[in-house]
Amino acid sequence: KIAPWTGRFYSLLDPTYAKNHIPIIASVSEHQPTAWSCYYFDLQLLAVMFPGELFHPVCGCNFSIVVGLYYLFKKPTNEGIFIITYGITSLYFSGVMVRLILVLAPVMCIVGAIGISGILKSFIVNLEDSDSTSQTKTMKHTSSSGSGLTSTHKISKSLQDTSYPFKHEIATFMVFLVAVLLVLFSKHCIWATSNSYSHPSIVLETTGHHGERFILDDYRAAYYWLRQNTKPDARVMSWWDYGYQITAIANRTVLVDNNTWNNTHIGRVGQAMASSEEESYEIMQELDVDYVLVIFGGLLGYSSDDINKFIWMIRIAGSTEKGRHVSEHNYYSATGDLRIDSEATPTLANSLLYKLSYYRFWETQVDRSRPHGYDRVRGQVVGHKNYELDGLEEAFTSENWLVRIYRVKPRANRGVL
Predict the structure, then answer these.
(1) Could you state one GO biological process linked to this protein (predicted)?
(2) Are 260 and 24 in contact (CB under 8 A)?
(3) Which residues contact 251 (CB under 8 A, 6 or more apart)?
(4) Which of 174, 201, 265, 375 has the fewest Cβ atoms within 10 angstroms?
């Protein structure tokens, strides 16, 4: 029996399917559409070699003849048709989901290699011919007149070459250019792998104004605090992005993790984050939550924090049966966006995530040119200030305020709600 298709497969055929029906799929960053910059960053030279051959029939220039797909179309074989089909379909799929660039990469290498091979063969032939330019070759040139008479002329190779001057120099330059591009491509691949794909996600690296290197270890410090200062059976509520990290490093139980198979449970956590503190406390009691962990990048300028993911929490919460009342329109300001300053809606300002993220933040100053409570990511000053938490208490805040952990008070120790 063949299992039915999942929402991810439907999203490949209809890119709007996940957003309209299963927002948790659309909320994953690797399921977002691919930006053009990603193609050039990940594929570099191959991004030019793959599509360039399609323009040959239009521009008619000799250089375009040698690019990969042209050769595959010129001499169609079973293997070539397979590569063409594979390339076009994977190119489409990679545009729908950025993660599928991995599927596109192999065929890009194949077609790029065919194109580069064609370029080198075309110009190396000219280099070899230049060694025998002193020899005279003849060819037949047939012309037809209005009376139907045909004449045959013999012309020398030297006369033919007048239509292609500097052939040896151009061939030498093109071979040298391809060699340089391949060297630069290799250097780019090594640099991209080293700087973008070799760092652990829990250790952040940044560069100062003078080029100095800074390592931000807030994630590990927070997880270590959880491991050392909480009970072994403590339950931590956070957004699902950090579930695997908390489980593996802090060795604590989480409500949701990166498996994301339980859409209802994730929606319940999103509902807790999007609701007021009073409503959230009841949900946390229902789920037996001991600690709440949020990621906040306002002080550091870290844009992948929970406030920037808040809209997806709201949408996922609203897609479940218990969260039908959660509407994202209640969180939008008059300008149609999520604002955290004085223009923030009461629903947003009273939400649990807002309160946990900006608790005591109005006391901080990121630099002398900015007022207290300035959020570097949103570019706004926090609008809702001087509030206290009733059902939770601050337990840990990392050095750069990136990770904030709150302890859920038992009912007997709660303040007046």
Answers:
(1) post-translational protein modification
(2) yes
(3) 227, 232
(4) 201
DSSP per-residue codes, 253-295: EES--TT---HHHHHHHHHHHHSBHHHHHHHHHHTT--EEEEE
Write the burial class of residue 29 (CB in 10 Å: 0-12 exposed, 13-18 middle, 19+ buried): exposed
The answer, yes or no, to whether residue 161 has pLDDT greater than 80, is no
Helix (H, G, I), strand (E, B) or coil at 49: helix
Q: Is the pLDDT at 354 greater than 90, yes or no? A: yes
DSSP β-ladder status, 213-216 and 204-207: antiparallel
Return the number of other C-beta atoms located less than 10 Å from residue 279's C-beta.
Answer: 15
- Pairing relationship of beta strands 140-144 and 150-154 according to DSSP bridges: antiparallel
Residue 113 pLDDT exceeds 80: yes
**DSSP-assigned letters across all residues of 155-220:** --HHHHGGGSTTHHHHHHHHHHHHHHHHHHHHHHHHHHHHHHSSS-TTSEEEE-TTS-EEEE-HHH
- Residue for token pair 């691949």: 189
Determine contact, residues 399/300, Cβ cutoff 8 Å. no
Q: List phi, psi (to 5°) of 213.
A: -100, 135
Phi, psi of 391 (to 5 degrees): -90, -10
How far is Cα 13 from Cα 311, in angstroms, rounded to an integer? Answer: 25
pTM: 0.77
Question: In this structure, what token pair is assigned to residue 32?
Answer: 């977002």
Domains, the chain, ordered by start: 33-136+165-196 (no CATH), 218-413 (3.40.50.12610)
pLDDT digits (tens, 9 = 90+) for 54-98: 333 333 333 333 367 777 777 788 888 888 888 889 888 988 999
How far, rounded to the nearest angstrom, does the alpha carbon of residue 261 sit from its chain's CA centroid?
22
